[in-house]
Amino acid sequence: MGLPPPxxxxxxxxxxxxxxxxxxxxxxxIPAFIRMTGPVVSASLVGGTEDVTVSLALxxxxxxxxxxxxxxxxTNETGDWSLTVTPTVNALDVTVRLKRGQQRCSSNETDSxxxxxxxxxxxxxxxxxxxxxxxHLLIQVEIYANSSLAHNASENVTVIPNQVYQPLGPCPxxxxxxxxxxxxxxxxxxxxxxxxxxxxxxxTGAFGGDVSPESEHQCSVQxxxxxxxxxxxxxxxxxxxxxxxxxxxxxDFSDFGYRQGDAVMTAAxxxxxxxxxxxxxxxxxxxxxxxxxxxxxxxxxNLEVYQEQDGIINAKIKSGAVGGIxxxxxxxxxxxxPDKYITRTETLLxxxxxxxxxIVEEHYIFRWNNNTISEINVKIIRAEINAHQKGIxxxxxxxxxxxxxxxxxxxxxxxxxYQLGKPVRALNTNRRNNETTLHLWxxxxxxxxxxxxxxxxxxxxxxxxxxxxxxGIHENCTRLRDNAVELLxxxxxxxHVATRGNSDYNDPSDGWLEIIRADAPGRGADPPxxxxxxxxxxxxxxHIRILxxxxxxxxxxxxxxxxGVETRFSTVNWQFQCGLTCEDKADxxxxxxxxxxxxxxxxxxxxxxxxxxxxxxxxxxRNDVCxxxxxxxxxxxxxxxxxxxxVAKGLLLVSFFMLAVFLSxxxxxxxxx
Length: 673
Description:
Elements: H1 6-24, E1 28-30, E2 33-36, E3 40-46, E4 53-59, E5 77-78, E6 81-88, E7 91-98, E8 119-129, E9 132-143, H2 192-195, E10 234-239, E11 243-248, E12 276-277, E13 283-284, E14 295-302, E15 317-318, E16 325-326, E17 329-334, E18 342-346, E19 355-369, E20 372-386, E21 390-403, E22 425-427, E23 435-437, E24 439-442, E25 453-456, E26 463-471, H3 477-489, E27 496-498, E28 512-514, E29 516-517, E30 534-554, E31 557-575, E32 587-599, H4 610-614, H5 643-662, H6 665-672
Parallel strand pairs: 2-9, 17-20, 19-21, 29-31, 30-32
Antiparallel strand pairs: 1-3, 3-7, 4-8, 5-6, 6-7, 8-9, 10-11, 12-13, 14-21, 15-16, 18-21, 19-20, 22-23, 22-27, 24-25, 26-32, 27-28, 30-31
């Protein structure tokens, strides 16, 4: 049984002592062993470092045995090596450095790497007090040619990039300054000939210099060496600064017709994208348009970074038939009031008269026929603003899919009953243009009524909206009352509402109900003793109550209809709000409108039986245990599975029960008898 080599044996002893000595409170080197492949190494001497002397010795390996460490000869320089000791708090920093004058491992950069090191030595750093050895640091030196000793290290301070923009640095694997690091292909200190030796084995990922990798779904990214043989279903190809399309790789099924929810494709096999709002409320500038899915969204953007996109203007859309192409028809309009789209306007940087056009609204109308697109109409509303204007701009994007044979842009709110989320259809018999709807306010900017826009009342959705009316301290109460009534009446300009979602606008007798209006507040003159800044009975809120009910079912889908609509005003006493002093400035008077849908049962509930009244323990609505529903899966009220499957499972359970009964003890005894 042979003995272990002397160097590993000494290393194990030093490591064992290094772990135990901190427990005893003695001196110890951390680490106790270093494998040195460069010109400089460092270690720390911790413990009681008062009056401690550190020395460096070169150990000569004679016939496979290392000499016993001795601390009698103390020196800081041994041949090619120098020792530097720097005192710190409760420790000493020990640095062993190869002298610069030595060029023992220098060679040409074009030489191949040698398998054997050019310098192999063993150094011993000892800590002693009064010629008594207290701790040892063993350094095994193995230096190869073309490593860090092949070039003179520069004394220039390394420039560290800003970690905010480059958190990992340009080349994390570049660990040695002034020298070429093996397998580090991003190291600028490696020559082309030297890099060619290990180009096929470069470090990958962030450590290899790929600190900002491109997404693997980019079409321009090549498949990694040794990566999987499959490719992702989707990849993204960036075009320009803002126009991003998702590409399918490589199949496109739009030539066989669209299905509801399929992405609308362009002739370039890219998705048609229009800004939309995500579930998190963020505006996605490049969201695909889904077939037969309408939306109406608003996105905000900073005018300083706004850039107009080409979008659908120059695009050609695939119709859904083989070889079919639809070219959008685009018309432009100028915004009547650009200020209602721009808020938080700041001082202009320049007073020049230069102007630019910005898009504030885009309205898309897709005509569809079966599973194809037959026509696309686009209306773009632009606003002219100063070229240096700052602020936040609100943009609106709408998409509607209409049938090819519909005569106008108005669509049904259901057929025949109303669908949840569809606009409530209304009719004004006092105007030439009978088509109208019920509205609510949609405030913008400061929330003033003068800049508020309208949004339709949606069936089945309770809502509350409002705006602010500017009022002065010397406001005439009669005029304030008239202005408030006029604002609230502007929401309900209709005289009738449709009972069903498909009532005909041209036939007032086709299911149209007259709106019941409660008496509006009087518009008489103010009392003679009225006080300035105080007004009574000012209309402040409009209550809209809509009665709905279930009117049957079509193909199993419940159809809902409107039974009546009532509007009523609420009044308040207004008083001008003053601070320490009443200044002649405008006060804000809030007006609001609310919509409430009240569902009326189509049939009266079944009266309770005498059994249900007297024996409440069998009432499923009052008790946790419901015995009448013991066989609930077998009744007609269970809709989780088809009825035939429920019956089959029930018969299977009954067969198991009968089998268990026949195999029980009483039946077994009867059979024996």
